[in-house]
Amino acid sequence: MNFPAKNQLRKIKNFNLGAIGSTCFSKSWVLDTIQTIKENPNDHHEDLESLSEMSTDDEVASFLCTEKIQFSLFSAFLKANFRGQEFILVILSNMLRQDFPSFKTDKMSLEIPIGVLDTDLSADSDYVQVLVVLFQYLTIYNDNLIIDVNEDEEHDQLEHHFKLAQKVVLIMASTLNEDLLKKSSRYLFSILDLASEVQDPLGKIGHLLSPPALGCLNEALNQALKSNDDKTAFVIIEILAALFDHMDHDQVDLLDQEHADQLLNTINLHLNEESTDLESVKSCAKVSVVLWTSTCHIDSFESIAEAYLQSHKKADKELIVEVIKQCLKHFLTVHSQKLLSDQNLLSKPVIRDIVAVLL
To answer: Nearest 5°: phi and psi at 105?
Structure first.
């Protein structure tokens, strides 16, 4: 932990006796320091860092909420440079976990932080770190917000997130920072969670089903796989599956054959990772079954079929296996003529076996 400057230590009375939570600092020091930071946050990075570390203590975070410190922090956020904004967002994130209702009722709790996204300084390392913490803050916000969503009401909080979705997808596709890809992917998934709770989800996130947006998600998935980040790859697959769940019947031809093949090639890379479990195979199948309408992509079909053949007799996986089975049967229905007329394909062990089991 970085301790406050010596002149500030002199202000602390009963340093140990008045300590808050598991920290070494008193409540009075915390309040005095917040006021000092509010005026000129860029001169007090060490104090901000100390407060950000202290705020991981639940008692400290609860105290900050009780004192309504978020208003001072939002004021400081507007004056702070990227480094200062990063520390402030960490503190606010920890407060948000303790007292979401206080944040939900105030528009500034969203409007001020997301203002960072109006800046285009993606090459600045400090800016990237601010985005990492920003998406963490927004995800915590959404995870709490979804508990209170009523589909019969309009929520300004929801609209803020839906409007950000396109920008988040672009960030996911363009970043080379693994942490930023991880946090932005998790945040986008939380947006889709919110969309599932409103009356017209396609009206809110339908633009993510456009070929450019799906191309961005394909690039993001590629980046996750190159980084060997299986968890983020799984989240992106889940994003695609959630998007396709909201599709109308007349949207089945989302992509032309070339772009469908590109996305399926990337999905197949994920399918062939050793760490890919059956749950992830199911999500890949749900995405693939939509894309198979545009293309007869044998490699992805074969990978999913192989996973099914290895698992279809497991009683504890019955529901997951059934979803995969229906997706495979769809492929066989749509592309049966090509399969049954090509002896080279039918001679492949996996294809031969899956045809025998499902047809």
So the answer is: -80, -5
Amino acid at 64: L
Query: Over the stretch 193-242, which tens digit does the pLDDT of each residue have?
Result: 998 888 888 888 989 999 999 999 999 999 999 999 999 999 999 999 99
Spatial separation of the C-alpha atoms in residues 291 and 297, rounded to whole Å? 9
Instruction: Return the exposure string of 273-309: e unless at least 16 CB atoms fall within 10 Å of the residue's CB, then b.
Output: eeebeeebbbbbbbbbbbbbebbebbebbbbbbbbbe
pTM, two decimals, is 0.89
CA atoms within 13 A on the CB side of 86: 15
pLDDT (tens digit per residue) in 11-58 = 444 344 567 877 777 888 899 999 999 989 999 999 999 999 999 999
Q: Which helix (H) or strand (E) holds 183?
A: helix 178-195
- The residue behind tokens 């983020």 is 232
